[in-house]
């Protein structure tokens, strides 16, 4: 079952509504991702996700199968632009293959995780942040670059994952504060996240009272695109994964538009040709 664009309750596609600014703009929004959100599509932490992909020992062959068979984008496109799906898949292969270390597991693993997080989580998050800001909303963007240690009675996360999927949830609800022997860094970062989230819920600003603090969290804007890196020492960074965001938010839509226009042109030419042949006969 999918939503139906009926022109009333859902007047148009989300993309069109965002482009036109035809939505109730939030006064203040917090949008965030984790540096290894791609772990959600794998079995790296079975307790957090039921992904079937064995990311620990992934091979080049398996990586190509992932590109061939997994992607909400490809599944959606294949319904209307079957002849162009191969083009999209090859573009993804070119962008995410670790060409300098094409057969090394750790490099393939990293690019696979990046493919998942960029396409499904980070690119849509950046896209929406840009649209909200363009329409006058205040946006605070973050990326979690630290994984909370949950080995005391819950689960362990592999060393190759930093900010694994859902890790900020454990920070916000203070899991390190309840542990018997938590890492000091986890306790400190959890307290800080609780403070920022509470402030935001109350005022719409993570740092409403001490904006001169070295830990201040600037608003996200369309120029610097500043965001907060949540790690033991909070850092303000800018322009998250610019190449990958350009790929998913600019290049892929360009291919989509070009493919559509090509389909329409070829369909029109085909109809004209058929009409001419019928007329001449």
From TrEMBL:
Pfam families: COesterase. It comes from the Eukaryota. Residues 2-248 form the Carboxylesterase type B domain. Gene3D superfamilies: alpha/beta hydrolase. PANTHER family: NEUROLIGIN (PTHR43903). Belongs to the type-B carboxylesterase/lipase family. This is Carboxylesterase type B domain-containing protein.
């Amino acid at each position: 079952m999918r939503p139906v664009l009926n022109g009333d309750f859902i007047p148009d596609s989300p993309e069109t509504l965002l482009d036109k600014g035809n939505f109730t703009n939030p006064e203040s929004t917090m949008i965030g991702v984790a540096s290894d959100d791609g772990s959600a599509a794998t079995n790296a932490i079975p307790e957090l996700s039921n992904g079937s992909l064995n990311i620990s020992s992934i091979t080049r062959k398996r990586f190509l199968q992932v590109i061939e068979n997994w992607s909400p984008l490809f599944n959606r496109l294949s319904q209307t632009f079957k002849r162009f799906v191969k083009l999209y898949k090859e573009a993804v292969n070119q962008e995410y293959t670790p060409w300098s270390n094409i057969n090394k597991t750790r490099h393939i693993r990293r690019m696979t995780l990046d493919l998942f997080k960029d396409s499904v989580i980070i690119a849509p998050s950046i896209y929406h942040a840009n649209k909200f800001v363009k329409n006058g909303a205040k946006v605070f963007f973050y990326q979690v670059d630290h994984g909370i240690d949950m080995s005391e009675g819950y689960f362990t996360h592999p060393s190759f994952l930093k900010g694994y999927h859902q890790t900020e949830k454990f920070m916000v609800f203070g899991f390190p504060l309840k542990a018997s022997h938590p890492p000091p860094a986890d306790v400190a970062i959890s307290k800080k996240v609780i403070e920022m989230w509470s402030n935001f819920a109350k005022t719409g600003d993570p740092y409403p009272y001490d904006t001169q603090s070295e830990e201040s969290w600037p608003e996200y804007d369309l120029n610097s695109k500043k965001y907060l890196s949540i790690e033991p020492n909070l850092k303000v960074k800018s322009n998250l994964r610019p190449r990958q965001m350009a790929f998913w938010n600019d290049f892929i839509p360009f291919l989509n538009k070009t493919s559509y226009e090509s389909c329409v042109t070829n369909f029109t030419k085909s109809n004209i040709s058929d009409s001419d042949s019928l007329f001449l006969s």
